[in-house]
Amino acid sequence: MPIAELQVYSVEEADVTGGVCVVRCVGGVARAGQVYAVGELRLGLRRIERYGRTVGFFDAGHVAKVHLTGAVVALLSRGQVLTSVPPDGHSLEELEEWLATGPPLGDEPLPRTLRILAVGWMQDDAVPDGIRLRWGRVALAATYRCAEAEETGELARGAELAAVRGYLIREFGPERGGDPAALCRELLALIDLTPQEAAAEADSWRDLPRPRILHLRRIKNLLPWLALVRPYLPDGEPLAEAVDAWSAVRPRLP
Fold it and tell me: Rounded distance, CA 233 to CA 240, Å?
């Protein structure tokens, strides 16, 4: 998304928590949930009003009354331009607040960029565990958005989600990292074959049409995450037995 810019016409009200301004969008598309920079300080765009009603966005050339968070609102002056912050300029708190608004696809930060950013912080063992877990939740949200924006297939999306969820379970355990059984159930529900059917196809996979080979490979990509959380499943339960059956088939898949 192009960087959005807002030019201040007037500050209608302001206090230590934020305020209300009349602004013109002079570039890009301004959306509720975006974060804008004023030097090193940040303003959150929480609500947009046009003609007496709340709207989700407005674009270049149009005027709106905007509700902003941040004490710096009181210091804004007529003619000042506010610029939306690019993805790597967001703090964790700002990203969490932005995602909580359910921003539309195409809004910045872009889903794939956001996922890469969040996974990097999630995997940084120099960061406190609580912060890494929060970045993990941002990574999950970004992965769902990637699937929508890129029209990813269910198996590919499942593998990307499992990579984040499995990592959190492995690093932080089921108490904080997530539910191993739920992850297994969801992944197994994505697979449209039984282990026996997959094994039968795998025996002659070189003779299969290319789309079928790719399908088997996508199934194979899910299986390491089942194996990763298998130690948390009680032996003898149907879910554990299903995971064991797929683990035995995996080496035969293309």
Answer: 6
Left, alpha or beta for 63 (phi > 0: left; psi -120 to 50: alpha)?
beta
Neighbours of 164 (CB within 10 A): 25
Contact 203, 182 (CB under 8 A): no
Q: What is the pTM of this model?
A: 0.64
Residue 121 neighbours by CB distance under 10 Å: 16
How far, in Å, are 22, 147, 148, 204, 222 from residue 156 at the CA level?
45, 9, 12, 23, 9
The residue type found at 86 is P
Q: Smallest Cα–Cα separation from 131: which of 100, 166, 176, 89?
A: 176
Q: Tens of pLDDT along the chain (254 residues)?
A: 357 889 999 999 999 889 999 999 998 889 888 888 887 778 888 899 999 999 989 998 999 999 998 888 999 999 999 988 765 566 788 788 878 877 766 555 567 777 887 888 899 988 899 999 999 999 998 888 887 777 777 888 888 889 999 999 999 999 899 999 999 999 999 999 999 999 999 989 999 999 999 999 999 999 999 999 999 999 989 999 999 999 999 999 99
